[in-house]
């Protein structure tokens, strides 16, 4: 479905062509973004099978609703939004994920969590094997509320801007910022257990 | 005087380097004098860096062909 001649075509041109029923143009859009969408789906769902479903559902939905895509945002931001919704829906359906509560109002007040303050080594991750490190990072990120996790994944792993993240998650910019701070601090807290410098066990409460 | 709470509130923007010079200078002065906030800033920065470097599985070939097949079916139906 994809041909190499499409590889240098502008995204907006491809979207316009796809809207006119050019299936090769849509195929090229899929080819451009499937890796990114699959990656963020893995990070948000923390489950390979769910991520595969999310990938498929995202592009099927995008194709179905292509006429609803407004040219004022990037196509990528638009499909990220679809993907995040699909991923969060998976989490909601998965009964084992007790942390899911999307309607919960989150207090963004002052009680930012900082309990453990201990310095880390310069490249603490290098003390772990790839598998060990993956396990540590997965466990930490899995413990975050899905909405915090989504903000962190989009901002810090997929490197979307604050505004793009707000658009993709249907949140305000201040809400993205406060959730990002909380997510970062919670992960920092969890990782400190593994990464702190030996003998540097100072605890403090702020 | 900037408190540790003030510092924490600005931490994300500080790490993203999206603050104006004046606030940035104040925060830098605070961490120069406050070892706790220095550690928090340093370890949070490392947290972000480590996650950025984390890899994910590429799209498996069978998943890719299933997606393409489903799309082609849908596209054919739409015509
Ligand atoms: Zn301080």
* Main pleated-sheet profile of chain B: none
Question: What's the assembly state of these chains?
Answer: heterodimer
Shape-level CATH architecture of the largest domain in chain A: Orthogonal Bundle
Roughly how many Å is the radius of gyration of chain B? 23 Å
CATH topology of the largest domain in chain A: Arc Repressor Mutant, subunit A
Any idea what the shape of chain B is? elongated
Number of DSSP E strands of chain B: 0
- The percentage helix of chain A is 55-70%
Radius of gyration of chain A: 19 Å
Distance between the termini of chain A: 57 Å
Structural class computed from helices and strand pairing of chain B? mainly alpha
CATH top level assignment of chain B: Mainly Alpha
How many distinct folded domains of chain A?
A: 2
Ranges of chain B with pLDDT <50 over ≥5 residues? none
Strand content of chain B: under 5%
Write the layout of secondary structure elements.
The complex is a heterodimer of chains A (206) and B (79).
Chain A: H1 11-19, H2 23-45, H3 48-64, H4 75-93, H5 130-142, H6 146-157, H7 162-169, H8 173-195
Helix pairs in contact in A: 1-2, 2-3, 2-4, 2-6, 3-4, 4-7, 5-8, 6-7, 6-8, 7-8
Chain B: H1 4-15, H2 21-33, H3 35-52, H4 61-78
Helix pairs in contact in B: 1-2, 1-3, 2-3
The complex binds zinc ion (ZN).
